[in-house]
Write the structure tokens for this entry.
Amino acid sequence: MNARLLLRWSVAALALCGVLAGPARAATTLTDDRGRRIDLPAPPQRVVSLLPSLTETVCSLGACDRLVAVDRFSKWPDSVKGLPQVGGLEDTQIERVVALKPDLVLAAVSSRAVDRLESLGLRVVTLEPRSLQDLQRVIGQVAQALGDAPAGEALWRRIEQRIAEAAVRVPNALRGQSVYFELGSSYAAGEASFIGQVLSRLGLKHAVPASLGPFPKLNPEFVVRAQPDIVMASESAVAEMATRPGWSRLRALRERRVCALPAARYSLITLPGPRLGEAAEVLADCLSAMAPVGLASR
């Protein structure tokens, strides 16, 4: 009799432990941007992110508390500034990463650290969003890796909604106007880039066609010949544009049809992460503040 009671108590205790522990953590398999399949036996609890867009994605999915280190360029949200910084694309601090014992490392395809980290037994998933479609896919993959695929779907819906709402606020007089968005000196965001795609969603055309690639290096004369209706760049870049050879002929500069973006807002727009909905709002704000009189008369 005592043996039977003991058995019942044991079974009840095991059942209670199962309830308290919650459902089993599901294993999953991802195919990353190298085409490699990575098996995750359970959702990772210690994550190192070596790319700002991936850091922001983890946090936007509600898993910031799982990050144990980030690259030196990850600055959002504020909570990640207190985490160990383990270098960048070219100088990842391998020993520090290994010492943190992550069960997942998120990195760019172009990171030089990937092969070394994998040779030391770490699981590395490489994901590098370059377009809106890429971003949707990457958000879904990171959410899957974290064990919460529905969170990825919900996050993408929020991004899409913010972009759509921003598009409504763009003045009708500016729709269909051509735009030049500068990324550092000589480089531009083309129609095929994630920045170009957001601008298209806002109803603008592109001075830099998709045929030139997402982020082409341009001869300065190209921009003068293109004569974009609107110029967008960082404040510092806009401040010196008129001194460039031939750029005094740009009507957009002469007529102040310019979005001179402060550093924080400029970096927001140039990062292919989950804050692109907010980036679309920043662009819409600038366009809304731009006097459309000159454009309407052309």
User: Anything to note?
Assistant: Residues 207 and 263 are 23 Å apart (CA to CA). The two ends are 96 Å apart (CA to CA). The longest helix spans residues 2-21. The chain has two domains: 28-147, 169-296.
